[in-house]
Amino acid sequence: MDDWTTSHDRVLAQRNAEGWMFLLEAALDLRTTGAVTPSGKALARLLTDPVRENGAQPLNVLEAGAGTGSVTRTLISRLSPGSRLDIVEANPRFAARLRALVRSHPRLAGAHERVRVHHAPVEHFGTDRPYDVIVSGLPFTNFTPAQVETIMDRYLELLQPGGTLTYFAYRGTRHARALTASRAEARRHRGVEDVLAGYQRRYATGCWSVWGNLPPAKVWQLRRPADPVAAADAAVPLTATVGASR
Question: Are 167 and 139 in contact (CB under 8 A)?
């Protein structure tokens, strides 16, 4: 058996294990597990593009809601020398898995201190470090509108002026919930979308669809204005900030 075959088999086994873990965690706690499958490669690349676009510049990066680490692996592979990554995960079993990932990742050999895993909800994460890039994998549609507003405000507090936030949402969830959820759940879902739409109108610099993901997803990119005065005038028609589908 050649090296490629054994490596390919290990990757498939890892993906299967992560898939089962997502299913089990979703059954246990939908608040901290908003998916039934890990994020695909195309979605991970799009979420982490702001890190790649900064080239060799050292960055402070935060990932929230990392799950089993499907996006984390892409983030680590794109970290430039001198960059630091903080991973915040509220699910204790996912946090333990992420720590094992950091310890075993070949790109971090001898430099594990560059990446730290914190077991906490991101809204309770205490740090004085400002971040150049934040990547969010949190399942916003599982939260209340007030919780989403608290989290988004915390992201903006943590971002450097000019810093970038990326997050995603699955496409078609409103229609699915309208068919299966109670009226109260449908109202909560609409309320979350309304809260996010407000931040999108003020801060969005791009929006892309990832049709190849399972399920298909939409990625939003927001930027904290470098000029506080400009932030007050940042509300623009949403169509002016939306990028092409991918």
Answer: no
